[in-house]
Design a protein that fits this description.
about 900 residues, Jelly Rolls, Glycosyltransferase, Immunoglobulin-like, 39 strands, about 25% helix, binds ligand 9MR, CenC_carb-bd, cellulose degradation
């Protein structure tokens, strides 16, 4: 029989938590991290669950244990009824929840008891208080384990260490002790090693009672009228969510900053939202289209935080901030406070002690016998690791943010040189590409040099030998740095972005473009020769694993980018032969570093090419977007993310945003405003219209995340340090949250509640380069949408044809027809090449080409309505396909 445990927290409502252990918990056992645990915040509120499921927040004093009641429970999920979280185990002792018990296979031949452990961290103990550790345990063969309550970090001081003889019959044990020291970084640890035979242990009903009640974080979700705290586009959709007990429609009022009611209506009851467990209504005030600041929305006796209407400038700022995030993440360069005020620091990992990398970095023992200079790149996230697959997807989306300006109807000149806060101004290269290059140069260094075993493959990652604690300036990191083995995933990911970079950098730096293309081809060939070298999930000490045992999607993505950049038949064949080419890549759970087929599909749809089934590919994006739109509309928070499991993944905010990338791409392909409205509404969720009533982007919104997990921006631990820079995205709710902060989130949290803005919350609240890349892409898209009004009809239609292709030269015609209904005077034609084309001259007119952007001033300077004219272009191609540009501007 299971022990009956009454959860004091009504948020622990439904959903059984099923989850496998995640390797990152080892940070806890290895790092000095927990010694910096912040003071836990007292319980300020309690959530009441109404009959209809509505959650209301009422203030509540910190509960005291009533006389005669059971002492407080310190262990979370000791009955394993809700899976295994937040328990962890050492990699040699795989465990799982079996029939409501936790069972693990213990290896033979480990020298010490502590070489095989099942444990739970973030246990709070108070000096002088009495505690009772109780559990039921059995073994498949008689064995002895140690039941410990101790510090989770060196010196691992034990408060209790009890040898416990186990037999094949489950038996209840209990031990009492008085804590000698106070800590919030304690640990319950069952030490199982030291045996001579393999055996299986099963644990159940683990309980540690005593002390004061375990702190539970219950967020303040007031005011219960949840809005995009930054605001809404003047002409765009405007929706809000009201958390209420009411089941019938309620009146709402929109007030301007002076308190005058400017619009009103009735809410739409939406029932209980499964992602939050809340009973909610929605408000649609989209018909109000007047720009203003400090507006508020009132319903059910609550008033929203103030917000603005007419926020294009805010999205413009967000695009710059989100993209400027990368400068302060740079490794191997001093960060200048003059460029990033408040964030200046010494260069990290340039071989200057105490750093022990990255200029002459050895492999892990037995992996290789050479050393590489792998300086540069970006720090991945809150840690100082550098991982090729994550750097790759991030740099892909940064370059895609730029390339989109050539593929969509975006005013030319956006995102140019001088647009971001980085040092490389004035070099005529768009800043976003300067930033992308910083990572690409690092990735090139990660490729195994010619003449070495596995030449052409790419090392999966480089990072510290052991996890470090927080805070830690990169330049002060004393850990040895190590290269981890090459992997097929990293090699293909690199092939993809190097090929993508080759076409994008060509107009700015031919030599660099050629180097990238060469490296991409080499990587592709190496991956084809070694198609199944997988990064293992067990490689998680000192850095994240980024494990991936299915690289079919990476093969597809790499083939797609190589094909788009070269037009070569072999890569086209690889694209067409991939099972991903026709499969549904627009999964409810989105795409990320591990699932990259979507990246390939999006580029095949948008970058011009001669792909035989390009029309079908483009339609597949529109179909995928339709489904995300339906998801978004069905969710009362406008959430475009609905994993089939009903559980939110690590980095859910990034997955939400990537689904918005698909919607945005469908808008770019079709001009259908419904998709663009979907992106705008979808962004509401990230900026405050969510169950926690907070923005997940630092500096944007009245209540915004600002304690993200980071060794550099550790203001929460040391007030002298900064918070993350404005425009930093938090990973977001994670149903499998597991970190010291997450133990304060009640198990079984409805997905939207599985989050805490705490620096120790790496599984819900980290910053990361891939996540900010998606934020950059989407905010850049929104910044390009003006006030969100109707899409203006273009002034003309353009038909561009390659008439003659001779070797490297070409003749092309652009036939322009005035479709505007008015006469165009002194008009110009503008477009951008996605290949290496360069126009030398036009017949009857003049041409100016800056990088890939072409501006033609035709001799035929007056074009009457309905009139057409043809412009003859004479040019050449350096390498790659001579593809027709994607979009044209005229007028
Ligand atoms: O973003 C990654 C997520 O998809 C994985 O589930 C998780 C666990 O492997 O790791 C995340 O990446 C982290 C990486 O392992 C280490 N650096 C910080 C990354 C963001 O949390």
């Amino acid at each position: 029989m299971k022990a009956l445990r009454v959860l004091p927290d009504p948020l622990a409502v439904t959903a059984a938590v099923k989850k496998s252990w995640h390797p990152d918990v080892c940070r806890v056992t290895v790092g000095a991290l927990l010694s910096f645990l912040p003071k836990v915040s007292p319980v300020k509120h309690s959530l009441l669950v109404g009959a209809a499921g509505a959650l209301l927040v009422v203030p509540l004093a910190t509960p005291a244990t009533p006389a005669g009641a059971d002492p407080p429970e310190q262990v979370v999920n000791g009955t394993f009824d809700s899976g295994t979280d937040p328990w962890w185990w050492t990699g040699n002792t795989p465990a799982s929840a079996v029939g409501g018990r936790l069972c693990a296979t213990v290896p033979a031949g480990t020298p010490n008891a502590w070489n095989a452990i099942i444990g739970q961290n973030a246990i709070t103990l108070q000096a002088g208080e009495s505690y009772r550790l109780a559990f039921t345990a059995s073994a498949t063969t008689p064995a002895t384990m140690r039941a410990n309550v101790q510090l989770a970090d060196p010196p691992y001081t034990p408060e209790l260490s009890a040898p416990t003889a186990l037999t094949t019959t489950p038996k209840a044990f209990s031990y009492t002790f008085k804590a000698a020291a106070s800590t919030t970084a304690g640990q319950v640890a069952f030490q199982l090693g030291g045996g001579t035979t393999v055996w299986t242990v099963c644990l159940d009903d683990v309980s540690l009672q005593g002390g004061t009640p375990r702190p539970v974080n219950v967020p303040d979700i007031h005011p219960r009228v949840q809005v995009n705290q930054v605001g809404y586009l003047t002409e765009g959709p405007k929706e809000a969510t009201v958390v209420t007990k009411a089941t019938a429609s309620l009146p709402w009022q929109l007030r301007n900053a002076a308190g005058v009611v400017v619009a009103q209506g009735n809410t739409t009851p939406r029932g209980v939202d499964p992602t939050s467990g809340q009973n909610v209504h929605t408000v649609d005030f989209g018909r109000y289209r007047v720009a203003g600041t400090g507006l508020t929305l009132m319903a059910d006796g609550e008033t929203s935080v103030p917000f603005d209407i007419g926020v294009n400038a805010a999205y413009e700022k967000l695009r710059v901030d989100a993209l400027s995030f990368y400068y302060t993440q740079r490794s191997g360069i001093a960060i200048l406070g003059s460029i990033a005020p408040g964030y200046g620091r010494a260069a990290g990992h340039l071989g200057v002690p105490p750093n022990r990398g990255d200029t002459d970095t050895p492999c892990q023992v037995g992996v290789c016998d050479y050393r590489l200079d792998v300086r540069g790149g970006w720090y991945d996230a809150g840690d100082h690791g550098k991982y090729v697959v994550n750097g790759g997807i991030a740099v892909y989306q940064l370059m895609s943010t730029f390339e989109r300006t050539k593929l969509a109807l975006v005013e030319p000149g956006r995102l140019g040189d001088g647009s971001l806060r980085i040092p490389e101004h004035g070099n005529q290269v768009p800043d976003v590409l300067d930033e992308a290059r910083w990572e690409l140069e690092f990735m090139l260094r990660m490729q195994v040099p010619a003449g070495r075993p596995l030449a052409g493959m790419v090392h999966h990652k480089v990072h510290d030998q052991n996890w470090t604690g927080l805070p830690l300036d990169p330049a002060a990191d004393p850990q040895p740095r190590e290269l981890h083995p090459p992997s097929t995933a990293a090699t293909l990911n690199f092939a993809a972005v190097a090929a993508q970079g080759a076409r994008i950098f060509q107009p700015y730096d031919k030599a660099f473009a050629a180097k990238l293309l060469d490296a991409a081809r080499t990587a592709w060939t190496a991956a084809a020769a070694h198609p199944a070298i997988y990064a293992p999930s067990s490689d998680h000490i000192g850095g994240g694993a980024y494990d991936d045992a299915d690289v079919s999607d990476e093969f597809y993505w790499a083939a797609a980018e190589l094909y788009l950049s070269t037009g070569e038949r072999a890569y086209q064949d690889a694209v067409m032969a991939s099972p991903w080419h026709t499969a549904d890549v627009f999964r409810p759970q989105g795409f990320d570093w591990k699932f990259t087929a979507t990246a390939g599909r999006l580029d095949l749809a948008t970058v011009p090419s001669g792909l035989p089934d390009r029309a079908r590919v483009r339609q597949s994006v529109v179909d995928g977007a339709q489904r995300y739109l339906a998801t978004l509309r069905a969710n009362p928070y406008g959430l475009a993310y609905a994993p089939a499991s009903g559980r939110f993944d690590w980095g859910s905010n990034n997955l939400v945003l990537n689904n918005l990338v698909v919607l945005a791409t469908a808008f770019d392909l079709t001009g259908s405003v419904a998709f663009r409205d979907g992106v705008a509404s979808g962004m509401d969720y990230l900026l405050g219209r969510n169950a926690l009533n907070q923005s997940y982007v630092t500096g944007f919104g009245k209540q915004a995340a600002h304690n993200q997990h980071s060794r550099m921006y550790a203001h929460q631990l040391n007030p002298a340090l900064p918070s993350p820079p404005a425009g930093s995205l938090a990973g977001g709710p994670n149903s499998s949250a597991q970190d010291p902060a997450a133990t304060r989130i009640p198990p079984g949290c409805p997905p939207q509640f599985c989050y805490i803005d705490d620096i120790e919350g790496w599984s819900t609240n980290e910053i990361a380069i891939n996540w900010n890349a998606t934020l950059s892409w989407v905010s850049s898209f929104l910044a390009d949408q003006g006030d969100g009004g109707p899409v203006p009809a273009p002034a003309c239609s353009v038909s561009y044809r390659n008439v003659v292709d001779f070797g490297r030269g070409f003749l092309a015609t652009a036939t322009v027809r005035n479709t505007s209904g008015r006469t165009l005077h002194d008009w110009k034609l503008r477009y951008a090449y996605t290949g290496t084309q360069k126009v030398d001259r036009v017949v009857d007119g003049t041409v100016r080409q800056t990088a890939a952007s072409v501006e033609v001033t035709p001799g035929h300077s007056r074009l009457r309505p309905g009139e057409s004219t043809s412009i003859l272009l004479v040019g050449r191609v350096d390498w790659g396909p001579n593809t027709v540009p994607a979009v044209f501007w005229c007028g």
